[in-house]
Design brief:
alpha/beta, 2 domains, 10 strands, 16% strand, Rossmann fold, single chain
């Protein structure tokens, strides 16, 4: 009987940053990655819409894919905030790992204790994010910046728009540097944003830390698997998209060095 894969989904191609970390942590596991690009971006949608999409995708990965998934990684901050608690209630036997902006690691590594957070409007407005922020009250000052349009620009590999938006949003956060009152750490609170890291590094002073959540999510996924794969088998990856398959194929090759066909799914 073939080993069951780990399901990973995002509103688009951004979750490939998490898949990259998962492949490093769990090289012998098979993965099925679903980009819900036909309904992106999630960060500018209402919560009910995101919950409905998360339920539909999870149902597909559990019932339409063969073999069905053994665990689920929600590689999207907005979908995690909106839907992970509901999915865990509805599917108590399925290990589900979500993502959240890496505020705690940022607090641990910041010296000025002034931290920028780039995220979607949906993530910043969520109860889950507000709870996370409240837990860290007094430990650091967070400057939270909604980044409308940035995930979509990354989704479509629109380089000029990525540069323009990153410039606008980093300026809005304020002064970066290593003196008192300056931002020395920037949290990338959307799984798309690590793919703009090179642009951000060009805009910011050398030494400013960029923190994303790929590696912690991969480690947590290993912890929740009842029997992580080992041995000689090299994990395989299946790619699915509800949008333009070419976008996901190009992104997978560009960012993961992965050449694989993409199966188009109806919404």
């Amino acid at each position: 009987m073939p080993r069951r894969p780990i399901g990973v989904f995002d509103s688009g191609v951004g979750g490939l940053s998490v898949l990259r970390a998962l492949r490093t942590e769990l090289p012998h596991e098979d993965f099925v990655y679903l980009a819900d690009s036909g309904f992106a971006p999630y960060g500018e949608r209402d919560e009910a819409f995101v919950v409905e999409r998360a339920r539909r995708i999870t149902h597909h990965l559990l019932h339409a894919e063969q073999p069905p998934i053994q665990a689920l990684v929600i590689a999207c901050n907005t979908a995690t905030a909106a839907a992970i608690h509901l999915l865990r209630q509805e599917l108590p036997g399925l290990p589900i790992v979500g993502v959240e902006p890496a505020l705690k690691p940022a607090v641990a590594s910041s010296r000025t204790q002034r931290i920028g957070v780039m995220a979607t409007r949906g993530t910043l407005a969520s109860a889950k994010f507000k709870t996370l922020l409240a837990r860290l009250e007094g430990q650091a000052e967070f400057v939270c910046q909604p980044c409308d349009g940035l995930a979509d620009a990354i989704e479509h590999a629109d380089t000029s728009k990525i540069i323009a938006l990153c410039s606008i949003y980093t300026r809005a956060i304020g002064q970066f540097g290593f003196k008192e009152g300056e931002v020395d750490t920037l949290v990338l609170g959307c799984t798309h944003y690590p793919f703009a890291s090179a642009t951000l590094r060009d805009l910011l002073p050398a030494g400013v830390q960029l923190i994303d959540n790929g590696a912690p999510v991969a480690r947590q996924t290993r912890r929740v698997l009842p029997d992580p794969a080992s041995g000689q088998h090299t994990g395989q990856i299946k790619l699915l998209s509800t949008g333009d398959p070419a976008l996901l194929a190009q992104a997978a090759e560009r960012w993961l060095g992965l050449q694989a066909p993409v199966q188009a799914l109806p919404g």
